[in-house]
Amino acid sequence: MKNLTIILLLLLTTIAIQAKDINILEAGATADGKTLNTVIIQKAIDQCSESGGGEVIFPAGKYLTGSIILKSGVHLHLKHGAILLGSTNIEDYLSIQPDYVALRTLKETKQLIFAEGQHDIGIVGNGTIDGQGDVFIRIGNDEGIRRPHGIQLINCKNVKIEGVFMTNSGAWMQHYLACDNLQIRGIRVYNHCNYNNDGIDIDGCHDVVISDCIVDSDDDGICLKSTSPRSCKNVTINNCVIHSHCNSLKLGTETTGGFQNIQITNCVVSPSEKETTYYGTAIGQSAISVEMVDGGVLDQVSIDRISIIETGCPIFVRLGNRARKHAPDAPQPQIGELKNVSITNITATTTSKTTSNITGIAGSYAERIFLGNILITNLSNGTAEDKATIVPEKDAGYPTAAMFGDILPASGFYVRHVKNIVFENVRLKTGSHEVRPAFVLDDVQQATIEDAEIRSDLKIDLLSKHKSQNIKVEYEE
Questions:
Q1: 3-class DSSP state for residue 60?
Q2: Average pLDDT of 446-470?
Q3: Phi-psi bin for 385: left (phi > 0), alpha (psi -120 to 50), beta?
Q4: CB burial string 120-145: b at 16+ within 10 A, e below
Q5: What's the CA gap between 230 and 177, in Å, rounded?
Q6: Are 72 and 49 in contact, with CB atoms under 8 Å apart?
Q7: What pLDDT, on the 0 to 100 scale, is given for residue 476?
Q8: How many CB atoms within 10 Å of residue 307?
Q9: Does 13 have pLDDT greater than 90?
C-alpha cells in the first residue's frame, strides 16, 4: 500500500509539471482589435511556463496588446487569421533595461515581445504580428524608446520562429542578441512604416539557421551584427528572397565581436515594390555587404548562388576603422581583421555607377578574398569624368556602398588596400557608352584576375592599377 501511494504521488507530480497549452480566448482575451489584452496574455504565458511549458494559442481574431514577456518553455502559436496587434499607445509598453551589456542595451527600450535569459521559446503558426508602428513619430535618435521594436530576445537558448507574418514595427522588426540554437524558418516580413525598419537582425548569436524567408524592408533586410564582444558564429542563411531599400544581405554595421563561419547561399535580391522610402534608396544601396569597422575578426565567410536584379551596388566589402565602443567603459577598439571571404556564383544587373568595391585602409589590408563565377551586367555608362574620379579614404566613415561617393572609377570592381585577392571567371557586360576600366586596383598586393571576359561596345580596358604589386592577369577578349 505504501508503494502504491508513492507511485500515485509521483504520477500526480509528473502530471502537474507536464506541458500545458492555453487557448487565449478561454483565458479571457477579447479578439476585437480594440480591447487591451496585455494582462491576460502575460498571465497565460506565466501559467504555461510554470506548468512545464506548452503553447499559448491565439485562434483567429485581432488581439491588441502592449509589451509581453516570453518565458521558458512557451511558444506563442498564432493560428491562421490570428493577428497580434501592437498597441498604438506608447504607455502600454514597458521600459526594459536588459542585464546583457551591448551597444543597444545601454538604456531602457520598449519592445512588443521581449525575453532575456529564457530557453525553449518560440513564435509559430500562420498568423500575423502587426506592430502598428506607423503611429509613432520619430524624434531624434529614439529607436526603441518612443518607437517600439517588434521582437527582442536576449541571451536565450533553443529559439524557434516559424511561419508567421511580421509587419509594421515602430523600428527593427526583430532583434536576436546573444542567443544560441536559433531557427527562423518560413516567415514573411514586410516592414515599411517607419525609420530603422530592418527585417531580421542577428546579433552575436551562435548556431543559427535562417531559411525559406521572404523579407521586404525599408532598412536592412537580413543583417548580422555584433554589438557586444560576442561574435556572430556558425550561421547559415539559405533559400531567402530579400527586398530592401538599404542593404539586402549584410554583415555589420556593428562588428565588435566579429563574425566567424558564416554561410549565405541560394538567395535572390531585388528592389521593393514600395518605391517611397524613409531611408535608403528606391532600388536599395547594396545586395551583399561584408563590413568590419569596430574591431573584431571576420573569418570564414562564404556567400554563394545569389541572384541580384537591379541594386545600387552588387558587392561591398569593407575593412574600416570607425572604432565605436559597445559600452562607455569598454576599451577602444583596434583595427579589426577581415579575411577568408569567398563570394561565388553571383549574377547581377545594375544601372548604378556605385560599382562593386572591396577596400581596406592604408596599412591594414583586407586579406584572402576569392570571387568566382561572377556575372555582372552594368548599364550605368560611366563617362571619362567618372573614370578620373578620385576616391577618398574615409577610414572612420560609416560603412555603406556609396561611402566614397555615388560614382567609382571602375565599371566592375574597385579594389584598394587588399592583399591576396583572386577573381576567377568574371564576366562583365557594360552599357554602350561605358569607358571606365573593368577593374581598378589601388595598393593591392598579390592579385589574380583569371579567365575574365569583358563585353563592351567601346572596348574598355580590363585593368587600371596604382601602387599594386604581384598582379597576374589572364584576359579573354
A1: coil
A2: 95
A3: alpha
A4: bbbbbbebbbbbbbebbeeeeebbbb
A5: 9
A6: yes
A7: 61
A8: 17
A9: no
When pLDDT is cut at 50, 70 and 90, the band that residue 266 belongs to is very high
Position 14 pLDDT exceeds 80: no
HSE, CB side, 13 Å, CA atoms: give it for residue 71. Answer: 16
- Angle of CA points 290, 218, 98, to nearest 5°: 75
> pLDDT category, 474, cuts 50, 70, 90?
confident
Instruction: Give every CB contact of residue 180 below 8 A, 6+ residues apart in sequence.
Output: 156, 157, 158, 205, 206, 207
- In the block, cell 565588435 appears at 256
Residue type, 148: P
Note the CATH number of domain 22-197.
Answer: 2.160.20.10
Residue 208 contacts residue 216 (beta carbons within 8 Å) = no
> % helix / strand / coil in the chain, to the nearest 5?
10, 50, 45
Residues 368-384, mean pLDDT to the nearest whole number: 97
Task: Tell me the sheet residues that pair with 427.
Answer: 375, 453
Cα-to-chain-centroid distance, residue 245: 13
* pTM attached to this predicted model: 0.95
Q: What is the pLDDT of residue 141?
A: 87
Q: Is the peptide bond before 253 cis (omega within 30 degrees of 0)?
A: yes
| Cell numbers representing residue 111 in the block | 519592445
Average pLDDT, the chain: 95
